[in-house]
Amino acid sequence: MIFFRKKQEIIDPYTVEQCDSCNIAKKRKFVEGDYVFKIIDKCSSCNNGQISISKIFGEVVK
Ligand SMILES: [Zn+2]
Description:
This protein is mainly β. It has no helices and 5 strands. The protein has one domain. Strands 1, 2, 3, 4 and 5 form a 5-stranded antiparallel β-sheet that branches. The protein starts with a strand and ends with a strand. The site of zinc ion has 8 residues, from loops.
């Protein structure tokens, strides 16, 4: 998803998923329906925690 904030500025939104147990974090492209604190999945890295969205941010594409 790409949207325009100002003229000539294109924001490319990203989502950061993080485990609440081992804190492993993963950045991926934002998809429709993402929101902060949304539970994604069980963590496959530590098999203990839960992956949830910790941050959503936009990057300016040059
Ligand atoms: Zn984990």
